[in-house]
Design goal:
128 residues; Phosphorylase Kinase, domain 1; 6 strands; 30% strand; membrane; ATP binding; Protein kinase domain-containing protein
Amino acid sequence: MEVGGDIHHLSYQDLACFTDNFSESNYLCHFQFGKLYRGKIVHAQSTLFVMVKIWEDSQIYCYKPGDNESRLMDEVILLRNPMVINHPNLVKLYGYCYEVGHLGVVYEFDPFDSVYNLIPKDDFTWVQ
């Protein structure tokens, strides 16, 4: 699939490297179709914190072959849409992994930010 822009096509080995081989200390949560991990991408001069979302085949849910691939592509296409790419309430897509048996997406993530800091503030006080 051609994505374009600054989205990276990543290998499963890249995802494992970002999350320290999907270590338990980087595990964040389980979602309906897989797991979510925290990770980091170390560049020469800087470190980028990321979230890595991995789709897994589930024996619990009944779905057709190819459903996970379709969900992955829908997510990548949505987050590349010019109408939402810079939306302040959406995470920024860094890249994706689309290999046989391994599906995942990587989002940029600021672990030091809080919901309070993300909510826009106005200059009004209660007295005004």
